[in-house]
């Protein structure tokens, strides 16, 4: 470790911020050096030492430091797109007592966040997350995404917020061997291209989860999701309504799985890396008193986020046979697949014939491993 890491609190804070930015840039470039858990430890330590540090508000931005500048115009968001607070499962109940009583639970897609503005029912602009307040205008690409509507029924004016994804089956069919590393990295590159490619953009799609509408008030998050799906007719993220803490835990276990049963997320045709939990009642959120950063609401006892991420573990509680092929669910690192696949096969001592059969079940973009 660098000497500056151990000189004092201020040096440690500077070191952590620098490392977070560096690893975030590597992640978005498709060449991560650390696991999700190691990255989270850096972020958690910085939050404990300097909870208001600006780097914490940057976490998750697709335009992370280190990405090449592409010269796109920028625009301010209607909906602030701050980063979400992560929560460990053992802290869930304490958080829920302050933010509850009811919640909605949604899949946290591993794609690129996008805000799409409409005026009078017509698409105006599509904007990337950027720094959470200002993002890059990528309308020239978004209008060709598979399920983005250029016109909505009625005269809707407002903004939709969603996640751009590329389904794993589509990546396997259309992009493997075409100089694209993985689905997440492919989305990041295509969304921000200065000169879009219609043939490629048509494979991307957006799943929506939030809305701000002029002349329309919502009392619950459920109303928002149903407005998106039923009135606007857009595709929405998989959502579970009216959940209490027991319901959240049950859904988490369904997705996470156990030592003897693979989690639901392994059967999905797209990558997720957690579950987003939202306090359902908008009035309850407002009573807590809004704060700009990280979707947090202030109380006398401190900040209480109304949106949280319950992170899904890739390794610890996943069946051993699944962990190697699915370790890519967040960082998509071929190196991680290589290391874990070799470790798994060697430790199990299985015959070469079985190893070959198992190897063939790995996605093609994860097969750069040696079984020798």
Descriptive report:
With 372 residues, this protein is of the alpha+beta class. It folds into three domains: 1-59, Helix Hairpins (Orthogonal Bundle); 70-311, D-amino Acid Aminotransferase, Chain A, domain 1, CATH 3.30.470; 333-366, no CATH class. Helices cover 37% and strands 21% of the residues. The chain contains 15 helices and 15 strands. It has helices at 9-28, 36-49, 54-58, 92-99, 139-142, 168-174, 183-191, 198-201, 221-231, 245-256, 282-288, 320-326, 328-331, 334-348, 352-360, and strands at 74-76, 85-87, 103-109, 112-119, 122-128, 134-136, 158-165, 205-213, 239-243, 257-258, 261-262, 272-279, 296-299, 302-305, 307-311. It has a five-stranded mixed sheet, sandwiched between helices. The protein has a four-stranded antiparallel sheet with strand order 5-4-7-8. Strand 4 and strand 5 form a beta hairpin. Helix 1 (9-28) runs antiparallel to helix 2 (36-49) and helix 12 (320-326) runs antiparallel to helix 14 (334-348). The radius of gyration is 21 Å and the shape is globular. The two termini are 34 Å apart. Residues 1-5, 59-69, 289-303 and 315-372 have low confidence and may be disordered.
